[in-house]
Amino acid sequence: MPGLKLFRRAEIWVPTWQGWIVIFSLPCLGLAGILSFAYPFLNVHEPIGSDYLVVEGWISRQQLSTSASLFRDGTYRELIVTGGPIPKGSYLNLHYPDLETEADIGAAQIRSFGISPVHAVPRPDAVKDRTYTSALALRKWLIDTDRTNARLDIVSSGPHSRRSWMLFKIALDGVAEIGVIATEPTGYDSSRWWTSSAGVRAMIGELIAYAYAKFLFYPNPEKDLKTVYGEAS
Q1: Average pLDDT, the chain
Q2: pTM score
């Protein structure tokens, strides 16, 4: 058709080689900035040091020993260990054939350091939200044993401590006041975590898990407790 034009010439701006360097550098600098502050943020240490010391039973023996020292040197009345069932066929089954949960194993190890009283509070099996489910189990135990209105510190491992603190505070809302103690992780140097694959995996995993728990997880402790145990709190 006369006068019909489907295309026209246009002038566009494209980056120079210096511009491309800046464009590609900005995301890298942003990522480096996030990672440089990630460990101090996730590795939170804010104890309140009072009634109970609560230890996550999955942490290493070295960290359990540190937990025993914290209890021995602190003003806590009782030590509590949380944790879920041991996977069938794991090496833990071979070493602890009579124990079925991380809570029981952690409690046994802490007792071997001369600490008493130590209570194992195992959680039911869970395919997801394991930390939160451990916190729900602790909520039920505190209520059932008339230990409400308690003040307690959660002992966790390095960058896991921020997420544990957040989830335990949610699960124990109205039941206990929560502090947190971050122990030195084993398997990598926390001051140079980026120099080892174990450190990188731990940090990336914790950043993703924390973001999920913070922004995509919608817990309701009373309802969730009923779902997990089939009964009201």
Answers
A1: 89
A2: 0.85
